[in-house]
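Page 47, continued from p. 46.
Same chain as before, 291 aa.
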Amino acid sequence: MSNIVEIKNLEVTFATDGGDVKAVDNVSLTLAPGEVLAIVGESGSGKSVTAKSVLGLLPETAVSRGAILLNGKDVIGMSGKRLRELRGVDVAMVFQEPSLALNPVFTVGWQIAEGLRAHGKVSKKQARVKAIDILRRVGIPEPERRVDYYPHQFSGGQKQRVVIAMALVLEPELIVADEPTTALDVTVQAEILDLLRRCRDEFGAAIILITHNMGIVADLSDRVAVMYQGKLVEEAPAQELFDSAKHPYTQKLLVLFLASAPVLPELRRGSSTGRRRVETITLSQWWLRTI
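Result:
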């Protein structure tokens, strides 16, 4: 099966007042259909720049070299008109902050339907029916009524569901999710991760997941690419990377993740009396026992 995305020797340089700055340095990656690839690293590592390059969303100050093949079509050097034709249909993006991704003066139904109108001739009635359907599929309650709500009438987690609905409405083969749970509490984070998993399982979408949270990586990804100072320093299946990370920077990320895990109580059976005792373990220890 051919890859949906092939990134070959990607370099991205930004022109600044202080001179050119190389944000991405000779990165090569592939993504297969239905696969979840997590790109991880600290702020400034180049992970978001790499992901946005796939959609051609870099500013005019950026110069890209190499190749990014999206279903065999090279995104680098593609005209703005052609890029707009690809976005939404071949690839869509879920942004980090849903409040900024949604326009406050239009209803969510109108904003979902906008993608349909931009890429095909659909009637107003058809667009509304599709908007209601996709809201229902991403878990928005009472979609027939809430399709006419404005963004401020939704909670943070519901806004992120709406943003995911906007990404899914044209059924793209690839979704780029840039820190999709950063602004959400842990309970809502888990719900959004479950929804992204459904995007893969029910919609058949491949996902590029941009994050610095190794817990999210362990929960969702099939394969992990680790970036540091613009370079790809390690790439491996998720289980293999957590079992035996090779690069010192990856090892540091994992140590920080494990050290920051909260402490949980665990019940153990006593040996002599048959009574149960409580053993204190970290979340990381519990997680490592389950894999």
